[in-house]
UniProtKB/TrEMBL annotation:
The lineage of its organism: Bacteria, Pseudomonadati, Bacteroidota, Flavobacteriia, Flavobacteriales. Transmembrane segments: none annotated. GO terms for molecular function: RNA endonuclease activity. This is Putative mRNA 3-end processing factor. InterPro entries: MBL, RibonucZ/Hydroxyglut_hydro, Xnuc_lig_assoc. It comes from the Bacteria. It comes from Aquimarina brevivitae.
């Protein structure tokens, strides 16, 4: 009789049968281990949540009254004699990879991750394993990120130029993760950083967990004159909304890995695009896989077919599995967050 896989892909999510626990499930389950706070990985309705302790306040803010326990990086915990531990994913504050060990077999589920140190989240650490479950949101050779300092130099120069022209800079980024990364690296010598309520609400959650410069919440009393020449960080879904019209004259920018696509800025009616992602590019994905020394690779979301075929050509036992994870598509933002106008 063939041995059952340690991790199985089911209609509810990634399931570990001997532990009776799910990893980032997309349907309600009894017990879930959660990699990070983005909506496609941490969903409402589970009876019990386990996650990194810095992710606890983040998912409580997003999901409300839940039963959740926090673990430290590298802390081992047993569930039905299956050994689990969380390890830095470098994706956003509080993000983790999940290591699963049972009867000499070791698997690592990455959730979402990146190798570049963003200055906020604990940097990614490779974990040796037999099987590696990876995203490949940007799993094409065409995706090759430049160092983030170069991107932030461009962003700050753009802001400075807009200020000199008497315009407000509006920079779009997902309220959890991207927004804080932008805030962290903006040059406050240029001016003040204003934030949409959804961004500022998340800033308040993350501020005790990571060093962020001062930001100012935009309210109904904020005037156009106050904003003029300064920079506003807002969710992508506010673009074109009544909320943004009070900022005229303004210039829009978007920070996303998708800005690497020719025409992406034009299609989204954005004035300026900055290629900045909280996910691995092609080269980083391959580097991460090699560092694990894993022989079996499962790709879950992104350019799965192309990426898997390439891995097979390299000699890996590689395959794809369907999930409900969205990668950077989730950065389009939840509608209810963008409707906050104070």
């Amino acid at each position: 009789m063939a041995k059952k896989p340690l991790l199985q892909f089911t209609s509810k999510g990634i399931y570990c049968p001997p532990a009776k626990v799910y990893l980032d499930p997309w349907k309600p389950v009894d017990k879930a281990i959660i990699t990070h706070g983005h909506a496609d990985h941490s969903r409402w309705g589970h009876k019990q949540y386990i996650t990194h302790h810095t992710n606890v306040p983040i998912i409580k803010h997003r999901l409300g009254d839940i039963t959740v326990s926090g673990k430290a990086y590298g802390e081992t915990f047993l569930i039905n004699n299956v050994k689990f531990s969380l390890h830095p994913a470098g994706h956003i504050v509080g993000s983790s990879q999940i290591r699963v060990e049972h009867q000499g077999e070791v698997w690592v589920f990455t959730g979402d991750y990146k190798l570049e140190d963003d200055g906020l989240s604990v940097p990614y650490e490779p974990v040796k394993c037999n099987g590696f479950i990876t995203e490949c949101t940007f799993g094409l050779p065409a995706f090759s990120w430049v160092p983030q300092q170069q991107v932030f130099d461009d962003i700050n120069q753009w802001w400075s130029t807009n200020q000199a022209e008497g315009k407000t800079s509006v920079l779009f980024g997902y309220s959890l993760g991207k927004a804080q990364r932008l805030v962290k690296h903006l040059d406050t010598d240029i001016g003040k950083i204003y934030t949409h309520a959804a961004v500022e609400n998340m800033n308040e959650v993350i501020r005790p967990l990571a060093d962020l410069p001062a930001t100012t919440r935009i309210t109904k009393d904020t005037t156009k004159k106050e904003l003029l020449g300064n920079i506003v960080i807002a969710p992508p879904s506010t673009h074109g909304s009544p909320w943004i019209k009070k900022m005229v004259p303004y210039v829009t920018g978007s920070a996303s890995g998708w800005m690497a696509f020719r025409g992406a800025r034009r299609r989204r009616a954005i004035d300026k695009g900055f290629v900045l992602s909280d996910h691995c590019d092609w080269h980083a994905l391959l580097k991460a896989i090699e560092a694990t020394e894993a022989t079996t690779i499962i790709s879950t979301h992104g350019y799965t077919e192309i990426f898997t075929k390439y891995l097979q050509e390299l000699g890996y036992d590689a395959r794809t599995e369907k999930t409900q994870y969205e990668g950077e598509l989730s950065e389009l933002e939840q509608k209810k967050e963008s409707e906050v106008t104070e």
